[in-house]
Write a structure and sequence with these properties.
239 residues; Rossmann fold; 6-stranded mixed sheet; 4-stranded antiparallel sheet; 10 strands; 27% strand; binds adenosine-5'-triphosphate; binds magnesium ion
């Protein structure tokens, strides 16, 4: 079943076209990586889906319902949550205070308490450091907090922008292990921006390659990593 549908999407910032004529769909429970060079439009795509930036053209649907024009708060209410680039945690607030941000939209208070337990079970370090200032956490712990915070809105779809950024490979392993575990547990649909095609192949899933605001390739992540020529052509990268 199609969970997210993007049809002929365009995103513009003034005269600059960040995304043009972009069409793809994501099935329920699927894990899709979005890769591509700096400025390819990866973040703009996530921001358009989450309703944080307006589409200049085209439409975005979730479960067949049009999201375009609803605004990010209403999109979040429908079960779509974003882990933004750079994490955007509130350094001056405690870990648990960060987790409660966003649950204000929810009326199911007992379910919020249950979700806090689920999140603490998935990220025991956050339970340990619940009262600590979020700004005092390591980069990896802050990334886990950003993911955990997004989960607190009880999403069905999660968009994650560059979770690996600035983290040591072992920490990235840990972040992805937990993310994949949570995907299974909650039946999440995941769209993840990930610069490393090798990493995407290792984690497993589908991969969309973007360049210049367009999707230039779409297929199994493992297949892309094996295709050195393709990787070199699009990224100028040696694998
Ligand atoms: N708020 C903005 N105002 C103006 N231009 C923007 C804005 N955000 C992004 N852009 C431009 O839109 C294009 C796409 O940017 P975007 O951030 O979506 O790319 P990206 O693939 O996420 O890049 P990166 O790998 O650096 O995160 C770039 O040319 C960028 O400079
Ligand atoms: Mg980006």
């Amino acid at each position: 079943m199609t969970k997210i549908g993007v049809f002929d999407l365009a995103v513009r910032y003034g005269k600059l076209t960040a995304i043009a004529n972009l069409t793809f769909s994501v099935a329920e429970g699927e894990r899709v990586f979005i890769s591509g060079p700096n400025g390819a439009g990866k973040s703009s795509l996530l921001l358009a889906i989450s309703g944080d930036v307006a589409a200049a053209h085209g439409r975005i649907e979730m479960d067949g319902e049009i999201l375009s024009g609803l605004g990010s708060e209403n999109v979040a209410r429908r079960g779509l949550s974003m882990v933004p680039e750079g994490r955007r945690i509130f350094g001056g607030l405690s870990v648990v205070e960060n987790l409660m941000v966003g649950t204000g939209l929810r009326r199911d208070r007992s379910a919020v308490a249950e979700d806090l337990e689920i999140v603490f079970d998935a990220f025991p370090i956050l339970r340990e450091r619940a009262k600590a200032s979020a700004g005092a956490l390591s980069g990896g712990q802050q990334q886990m907090l950003a993911i955990a915070r997004a989960l607190m809105t009880n999403p069905k779809v999660m968009l994650v922008d560059e979770p690996s950024l600035g983290l040591a490979p072992k920490v990235v392993d840990d972040v992805y292990d937990r993310l994949c575990h949570l995907q299974k547990l909650r039946g999440l649909t995941l769209i993840i921006v990930e610069q490393s095609s090798a990493r995407a192949a290792r984690v497993g899933g589908r991969m969309l390659l973007m360049r210049g605001g367009k999707i230039v390739a779409d297929g199994d992540a493992a297949g892309f990593a094996a295709d050195t020529l393709l990787t070199e052509a699009y990224f100028g990268e040696q694998t």
